[in-house]
Amino acid sequence: MGITGLEPRHEAALRDFVADFRAAGEPNIPAFFQRAEWDHAQTVAHFDAWAQGEPMGWTLGTEDRFVACTTRFLEVEGTGELLGLFNFRHRLNAQLERFGGHVGYSVRPSARGHGHAKTLLREAMAFGRGLGLTRLVVTCSPDNVASARVIEACGGALQDTYFHDEQDTEICRYWIEL
Ligand SMILES: CC(C)(COP(=O)(O)OP(=O)(O)OC[C@H]1O[C@@H](n2cnc3c(N)ncnc32)[C@H](O)[C@@H]1OP(=O)(O)O)[C@@H](O)C(=O)NCCC(=O)NCCS
Question: Which superfamily does 2-177 belong to?
Answer without folding.
Answer: Gcn5-related N-acetyltransferase (GNAT) (3.40.630.30)
